[in-house]
Amino acid sequence: MRHRIRAAGLLVEQDRILMVHESDGGQSYWVPPGGGFEAKDGNTRNTVKREVWEESGLSVVVGELLFVREFCEASRDIYHLEQFYIIDQWQGEISLKNLEPLSEQGRSITEVRWLTKQELAEVKVYPPQLKDLLWHKLDQNDLSIVHLSLIHI
């Protein structure tokens, strides 16, 4: 079984969160900008900085780790570990231009944009806890880490 570490940034502004739309293997869903850890990153905070810039064009300051999610994707024989960090600050203009060098076949991200809490409730989102638990924790100013449990898909 292979292992994959993914780190993502939670960019939240009032009642909106920045999300990327993925179309992958016939499925369509929204996730926070992020991606796989690479050795050159050194740590997952640097992965978040690199991936958010690649997927949104924004430079970020990475804050606290908020969620950890594990899942086993049996069909591809991959064990995933994901880390979701709050983004304290960002600058730049939202754009997919950094993904342009990737061929259409190699690129699964089709859109990056702010989604309101209401819009989030109406679409397929991973992890699904972004629809409710994230907002509850932010309302309570609760930055304790939550493990989103191990699931098998």
3D architecture notes:
The protein is of the alpha+beta class. The protein is built from 3 helices and 9 strands. The strands form 2 sheets. Strands 5-1-7-6-9 form a 5-stranded mixed sheet, with helices on one face. Strands 2, 3, 4 and 8 form a 4-stranded antiparallel sheet that branches. A hairpin with a 4-residue loop joins strand 6 and strand 7 (78-91). The protein is globular and about 40 Å long. 25% of the residues are buried. The mean pLDDT is 91.
Care to give the gist of this entry?
Helix content is 16%, strand content 47%. It has a five-stranded mixed β-sheet, with helices on one face. Strands 2, 3, 4 and 8 form a four-stranded antiparallel β-sheet that branches. The two termini are 14 Å apart.
Walk me through the topology.
Elements: E1 2-10, E2 12-13, E3 16-24, E4 27-31, E5 34-36, H1 44-56, E6 59-73, E7 78-91, E8 109-116, H2 117-121, H3 133-139, E9 146-152
Parallel strand pairs: 1-7, 6-9
Antiparallel strand pairs: 1-5, 2-3, 3-4, 3-8, 6-7
End-to-end C-alpha gap? 14 Å
Q: Which descriptor suits the 3D outline?
A: globular
How many E-type strands?
9
Structural class: alpha+beta
> How much helicity do the residues have?
10-25%
Query: What's the helix-strand series?
Result: EEEEEHEEEHHE
- The residue-averaged pLDDT reads 91
CA radius of gyration is 15 Å
Low-confidence stretches: none
Q: Please count the helical segments.
A: 3
Question: Strand fraction band?
Answer: over 45%
Largest sheet: 5 strands, mixed
Reading side by side through the largest sheet, how are the strands ordered?
5-1-7-6-9
